[in-house]
Design brief:
By secondary structure, the chain is α/β, with parallel strands linked by helices. The chain has one domain: Vaccinia Virus protein VP39 (Rossmann fold). The chain contains eight helices and seven strands; from the N terminus they run ααααβαβαββαβαββ. It has a seven-stranded mixed beta sheet. α5 links the parallel β1 and β2. α1 packs across α5. The two termini are 35 Å apart.
Length: 247
């Protein structure tokens, strides 16, 4: 009995130590002197430490960030993974390639060159993608932040299919996006939101398992009524945070 108790305490202590190591590395990345003030100003809203802990990030993982935009999360993930892991970025990488990846300390980030086929057809509210291949396999984790809402259903299916293919068995897929009312018809105000129930359905259809949901970015005062860029909700949108796993 004592041996079992000792083993349990040791296991719990090891888990806590691993979490503390990740916390320390994420906090150091957030405090980096070269990090832009505009990025720091969003920390309270985006809650990166809590979000990455919810996703289960470890510093020895091979992680892909999809559609990194201006590199807000790239600046956090790259230092955390630099020593023991590996960070990849793919799709919509033009801005981060010309800025963050040119800076000292980001040399180890791997940019996956896929076909340059991200485009919005004339008259469409959404972007689409032709067939592509990420060209990487056995990843531990893929993350994307506030991006799926930009794509039409066919493009989301292609993205999720490639993520499934790129992950190892047991690999994790973390998603954050702006919440749309369930089954609300498309309109101008919800064009940059997406139904979380639809996201879950599409992930299950692709073969992913639903792992968990977090209310880290729940905002009770966002009525889900207005376009996310409006001053009344910008920076305070209700966002769903979900984790999926490849069996």
């Amino acid at each position: 009995m004592r041996a079992l108790l000792a083993f349990t305490l040791l296991t719990l202590a090891g888990g806590a130590l691993a979490a503390n190591e990740i916390d320390t590395k994420v906090e150091a990345a957030l405090a980096a002197e070269a990090r832009p003030q505009a990025d720091r100003d969003r920390d309270r809203n985006r809650r990166p430490l809590e979000t990455l802990n919810f996703f289960g990030l470890k510093d020895n993982m091979r992680v892909l960030e999809l559609i990194p935009g201006g590199g807000w999360y790239t600046r956090v993930l790259a230092p955390v993974l630099a020593e023991n892991g590996k960070l990849y970025v793919a799709l919509g990488t033009g801005r981060v390639k010309a800025s963050v990846l040119m800076e000292p300390g980001f040399e180890k980030v791997v940019l996956l060159e896929t076909a340059d086929n991200l485009h919005r057809p004339e008259g469409s509210r959404f972007y689409t993608l032709d067939d592509f291949d990420l060209g990487v396999s056995d990843l531990d984790m893929v993350v994307t932040f506030r991006n799926l809402h930009n794509f039409d259903p066919a493009a989301r299916a292609r993205v999720n299919s490639q993520v499934f293919k790129a992950l190892k068995s047991g690999g994790l897929y973390g998603v954050v996006d702006h919440t749309m009312r369930h089954m609300e018809p498309p309109n101008y105000e919800n064009r940059r939101r997406i139904d979380p129930v639809l996201v879950i359905k599409e992930m299950l259809d692709e073969g992913f398992e639903f792992v968990d949901y977090s209310d880290l970015h729940y905002r009770a005062d966002d009525e889900l009524e207005y376009e996310v860029g409006r001053r009344s909700v910008s920076g305070n949108t209700d966002r769903f945070t979900m984790l999926f796993r490849k069996p």
